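Handoff note, outgoing to incoming analyst
You'll be picking up this chain. Sequence as last confirmed:
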Amino acid sequence: MTTIAEIAQLGAKVLRLKAEAISDISDPETQQLIKTLKDTLASTQGVGIAAPQISVSKQIIIIASRPSSRYPHAPLMDPTVMINPSFVALSDSTEKDWEGCLSIPGIRALVPRFKDIQITYTDQLNNLVETKLEDFVARIFQHEFDHLEGKVYLDRVKNNQDIIAESEYFKIFSVPPL
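Most recent structure output, in case you need it:
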């Protein structure tokens, strides 16, 4: 059975909390949360989701880069569940690029992010995973990781003029609106 949760919107207190670590991955509640996150993300045009976005302050994110009307040039990857994730930047090099968020519909902003990162997380089978991410997928990870820290992408914007309506973004970049 598909379980789709409501996406918490900017202003919801859960989006500003530091999420709690998961202690028991095999717990049925944790496994149900993972399923709900997967189902909810699959029902959207998003490329990632964090548990706080469905009002659960736990350290679980899913990255599922795929081309869509919101991100037509996104690389295709299988949905990847990341529990209790962390990362380090592999260099000081950052790059600004456009981001949007399921919790902040209708807005896009230029956000600086590290281009290359080393991540560590536990997968849903309780395996420790360490890998490197770069470019767009590294950006998705950092965006979702921010949700676990009680931050949203607008907190990272350096200049308010870098924030635009998504309808204007679609006009500028000739991307068809949703």
